[in-house]
Write a structure and sequence with these properties.
Length: 499
């Protein structure tokens, strides 16, 4: 029994041991499984976190800080391959909530061009903040601007400015509209040229036919017919977006204006060969738009070598012209000044021989004052005075009889002879509410007037004025060809009086 019981015991013991082992094994198994599960969970967590990090890094174009925005902008600029053949690249970055912007722009050699570029940047920023005036702190909007510049063989730098607006959607920045602006700067004057300075008058007709065929051939079913018909017609507002390049002219068409919006802004290159007879062989130095404001600067009492030349330097540098009313007695001293005026397209007028009050002279003396001066002008430049300005503005029937030219007074008196102060002259001109159609009186014999000219000419151009001669002003603004012997007096050069 004992044995049996021992055996039993032993059996029992064995069974007991087995059970212990089994339990241990089960426990170990459980622990292993738990560990395995934990490890799996851990790996999964790592994978998920890793994926999030990778996704965040790769696909999210958002930014949370100023540095982040800078990086974001940098990446955007790097992704766009631009042609920047002219100018030194500068970047203007402003980070803010809700509005941020990063603008790339070129700094070129010509200061007039740089002033215009600065103005373009300013305008782009203003438009952007106006468009997004209602945005709150929850919104996040970015404006990214970059550019192309092209060197040409025609004394022109072409510049296209690409504006891209983006808004935050979820954690991603999305395209919220893009457009392009174009400029063609004269390397001679630095000013932005208008299409008519570059092209002959037939260019829109040519473009209309050329582009209609081009888009039909190339895009066919992707054409947005109604819009295309409108955009490709030969009316004045079309084909104004273009830049001159080394090989031809690149025309731009805004998103959706001709073809499916998915295609974005479309550019079409037309070679100079194809544009033969349509593009001018030489850029027209001046093109006057009668619809845009014009002002005529006039300078009396010269020529005077140093100051006349200083004024001419300024006008030449700015691609502007003015009218000079010269005294016959001074012309012999500075004939080269008159030659230079003629060469630069200035209007050369007469201001009598010796500056007398013509109202006090006999008819014979009046005639002599006029004829002698015309002789001196003709000797210098081969033609007589185009207009006549009597000293002190004093004109009478004798002057009208003998002038042999239109008699021109003025509508803005700078009193430069009295103040002899550039600030004062500048203030008088800038103080006139609207200079369109006005004739400004100055004198070419004072340093202060030359200095005022150097400030006023770039300012007037910046303000959108076309600087013209008196003759041009009369023809373009007052639709009148100036008549010899007619007095264009103090009341004449006011557009308001003519309406
Ligand atoms: Zn005078």
């Amino acid at each position: 029994m004992k044995n049996l019981s021992m055996g039993l015991y032993c059996d029992k013991g064995e069974i007991f041991m087995d059970q212990i082992q089994k339990r241990r094994l089960i426990r170990e198994k459980k622990q292993k499984r738990t560990r395995r599960i934990l490890a799996s969970v851990l790996i999964l967590v790592i994978i998920i976190i890793g994926t999030i990090i990778v996704i965040t890094a790769c696909s999210t174009k958002s930014y949370e800080t100023s540095d982040g925005f800078q990086e974001y902008a940098q990446k955007y600029f790097e992704e766009n391959e631009r042609t920047q053949e002219v100018g030194k690249l500068k970047t203007d970055v402003t980070y803010g909530i809700p509005l941020s912007n990063a603008i790339e722009y070129p700094v070129m050699k010509n200061q007039i061009t740089n002033a215009k570029v600065a103005d373009i940047v300013k305008t782009v920023k203003n438009e952007y903040s106006q468009q997004n005036a209602g945005k709150t702190k929850e919104d996040k909007v970015a404006l990214l601007v970059d550019y192309d510049t092209y060197k040409t063989t025609r004394e022109v730098v072409g510049m296209a400015v690409f504006k891209n607006q983006q808004k935050e959607d979820g954690r991603k920045m999305e395209d919220a509209g893009s457009s392009v602006d174009t400029y063609n700067f004269s390397t001679k004057t630095g000013t932005a040229l208008v299409p008519n300075q570059i092209f002959e008058d037939n260019y829109r007709k040519f473009c209309s036919e050329y582009m209609t065929k081009y888009f039909d051939d190339k895009y066919g079913d992707k054409l947005v017919e109604e819009a295309a018909k409108e955009t490709l017609s030969d009316k004045d507002t079309n084909f104004n977006k273009f830049v001159m390049t080394g090989s031809g002219v690149k025309f731009y068409f805004d998103k959706g204006k001709v073809v499916d919006p998915e295609e974005g802004v479309v550019a079409v290159d037309v070679s100079y060969d194809d544009l033969d007879g349509v593009i001018r062989d030489k850029i027209a130095e001046r093109y006057l738009d009668p619809k845009k404001p014009m002002v005529a600067l006039t300078y009396d009492d010269g020529p005077h070598g140093p100051t006349s030349n200083r004024i001419l330097d300024c006008l030449e540098a700015n691609g502007a012209v003015a009218t000079f009313y010269e005294l016959g007695q001074n012309i012999g001293l500075y004939p080269e000044v008159l030659k230079r005026q003629a060469k630069l397209g200035m209007e050369v007028g007469s201001h009598s021989w010796s500056h007398p009050n013509l109202n006090t002279l006999s008819p014979g003396k009046v005639k002599e004052q006029i004829d002698k001066t015309n002789g001196a002008i003709k000797k210098a430049i081969g033609r007589t005075a185009t207009t006549f300005r009597p000293p002190y503005g004093n004109s009478n029937a004798n002057v009208e009889k003998y002038s042999k030219a239109p008699i021109v007074l003025w509508s803005v008196d700078t009193l430069d002879w009295k103040s002899r102060n550039a600030d004062s002259v500048e203030a008088v001109v800038k103080g006139v509410k609207n200079l369109d159609g006005k004739v400004v009186l100055m004198h070419s014999i004072y340093d202060s007037t030359a200095e005022a000219t150097e400030r006023l000419v770039p300012w007037l151009i910046q303000e959108g004025y076309q600087l013209v001669t008196v003759d041009e002003l009369t023809q373009y603004k007052y639709k009148e060809t100036p008549k010899d012997g007619k007095l264009y007096g103090y009341n004449y050069f006011y557009l308001d009086n003519k309406k």
